[in-house]
Design brief:
Elements (H helix, E strand, L loop, with lengths): L2 H31 L6 E5 L8 E5 L2 E5 L3 E5 L2 E7 L10 H18 L2 E9 L2 E6 L4 H16 L12 H6 L11
Parallel strand pairs: 5-6
Antiparallel strand pairs: 1-4, 2-3, 4-5, 6-7
Helix pairs in contact: 2-3
This protein binds iron/sulfur cluster (SF4).
The site of iron/sulfur cluster has 9 residues, from helix 4.
């Protein structure tokens, strides 16, 4: 194949087929997620394709991959898919996961967190950014660090059997229900 023809096909494929396809896909996703106009998708890990976001806090390297991050000017909206059904009230772990994502998007993208959305199987919950979440996350990280350094034993902080049954550490956990 001649070089000019190859280059022409490459440009045609990218600009006239692939780019509109990506734009349509993004628009469909935004509609499905209920994202209002003005928000632009800047990061996704919905299929494991996102790079690991990192931040340093309280002597711990915090890593995470939110499912979707949207940007509107200097603000960020974080969306995460959850496996289970929507709880009556969010668990501390849900809030801390969002707090960690808020910190990560602030450090990695220089954006002010605006809101986090957790999408459960039967509905979603929106959590507005609250600056007190970050010190709460810091305290939790300190506790986790102490546990990892074996200074404090790990203790269960809930009484939900179903939660333990879904937990990745179930087989190895002495505190399981
Ligand atoms: S199995 Fe252990 S680590 Fe997992 S939720 Fe239950 S108590 Fe927590």
């Amino acid at each position: 194949m001649n070089l000019n023809l190859g280059l022409g096909l490459f440009i045609f494929f990218n600009f006239f087929l692939f780019l509109p396809y990506l734009l349509l896909k993004k628009r469909r996703l935004s509609r499905e997620l209920g994202i209002p106009e003005g928000w632009k998708l800047i990061y996704t890990d919905a299929q494991g394709e996102g790079r690991l976001l990192k931040a340093f806090m309280k002597g711990v390297i915090l890593c995470g991959k939110p499912d979707w991050v949207y940007q509107n000017r200097s603000q960020a909206l974080v969306i995460e898919d959850k496996q289970g059904t929507k709880p009556g009230e969010l668990y501390l772990s849900h809030r801390m996961q969002l707090a960690a994502y808020f910190l990560l998007v602030e450090k990695e993208f220089g954006l002010r967190p605006y809101q986090g959305i957790l999408r459960f199987r039967d509905g979603q919950t929106e959590v507005s950014y609250d600056p007190t979440l970050i010190p709460a996350l810091g305290t939790l990280l300190e506790e986790m660090r102490a546990i990892l350094l074996r200074k404090t034993p790990a203790r269960r902080n809930h009484s939900s059997r179903s939660r333990c049954r879904r937990c990745k550490f179930y087989e190895h956990c002495n505190e399981r229900l």
